[in-house]
TrEMBL record:
This is TAP-like protein. SUPFAM superfamilies: alpha/beta-Hydrolases (SSF53474). One of its GO terms (molecular function) is catalytic activity. It comes from Kytococcus aerolatus. Residues 222-296 form the Peptidase S33 tripeptidyl aminopeptidase-like C-terminal domain. Signal peptide: none annotated. The lineage of its organism: Bacteria, Bacillati, Actinomycetota, Actinomycetes, Micrococcales. Residues 86-192 form the AB hydrolase-1 domain.
Length: 298
């Protein structure tokens, strides 16, 4: 009787499945936190929208050099010139993506800081993540504003990952007076699970494997990025949560969970029929006016 080969088809299939999950986990971790730059390093600037801006650089606590644009409203000629808005872009985005809302708030009377998170736009590479290491960048932006306008009230406006960063930083930094968070996720585990389902992949065990690969390769865990666990610390400062009903990237239930955990001073506005970060594009003038009115009225 011939000796049985241990590498039977079921064993090979199972081994390939495990190997595939492992490779998939490493790929997923890289997509989330690995360094990636666009093939063509050109983008729009405040010149294209007719707004005077100062190019500036500043440094995060871990030494990463960051790049920004300062849109200034000096003096007392403008109502609200004693306010500064820091605008935070999304994952794999740049400050150029914010050339709608940023100049919009500038025209409404705010001084505005647009900046690139680490590894994006004109900022240097550094340890990257999904709203973990980027908190250091926003903290550095707050330090910059405090040095330039020590008496100003500071508002944060963030989109997607930038919104999650804004929520976490505002929760522990009382220099932030008001927050607008558009399309934020409630917890990193949940948004990665949603992405897996969107690609028709099994969230279990893939998300756990990506979490493990992220810890080994990039030095943080999904459990360290949970805006829903800290959003209540922003209260009673004003918080506006915005989210679209058709968001396939970060499902609407994330916004409802954040709203349920937020305290006094928070408000959730659900925008019908729009996708991820789509409220601005559905009505650009109306969106700018709504954000400015919310920030101005509180």
């Amino acid at each position: 009787m011939p000796r049985r080969n241990p590498l039977t088809l079921p064993a090979l299939t199972a081994g390939a499945g495990v190997l595939g999950l492992g490779v998939g986990a490493l790929w997923g971790a890289h997509q989330i936190s690995g360094a990636q730059r666009p093939a063509i390093p050109f983008g729009f600037s405040p010149f294209e929208v007719g707004v005077p801006a100062e190019d500036l650089t500043f440094t995060a606590v871990d030494g990463v050099r960051l790049s920004g644009w300062w849109l200034d409203r000096p003096g007392s000629d403008w109502p609200g010139s004693d306010r500064v808005a820091i605008v935070c872009h999304g994952h794999r985005g740049s400050k150029a993506d914010m050339l709608g809302i940023g100049p919009g708030l500038w025209r409404e009377g705010w001084s505005v800081l647009l900046f690139d998170f680490r590894g994006n736009g004109d900022s240097e590479d550094g340890p990257q993540s999904l709203a973990h290491y980027e908190q250091r960048d926003l903290e550095a932006a707050l330090d910059l504003v405090a040095a330039r306008r020590p008496e100003a009230e500071v508002d944060l406006v963030g989109f997607s990952m930038g919104a999650a960063v804004a929520l976490q930083v505002a929760a522990r930094d009382d220099r932030v007076r008001r927050v607008v968070a558009d399309s934020s996720f409630a917890d990193m585990h949940g948004v990665i699970a949603a992405a897996a389902r969107g690609m028709r992949l099994p969230p279990v065990p893939l998300v756990q494997l990506v979490d493990h690969a992220t810890r080994l390769r990039y030095g943080y865990r999904f459990a360290e990025v949970q805006p829903v666990e800290v959003v209540g610390e922003i209260a009673p400062r004003p918080l506006l949560l915005l989210h679209g009903t058709e968001d396939a990237v970060i499902p609407l239930e994330h916004a409802h969970r954040l709203a349920a955990a937020a305290g006094e001073g928070s408000e959730l506005r659900v925008v019908e029929g729009v996708e991820h970060c789509g409220a601005y594009f559905a009505d650009r003038p109306g969106y700018i006016a709504e954000v400015a009115d919310f920030l101005r009225a509180r």
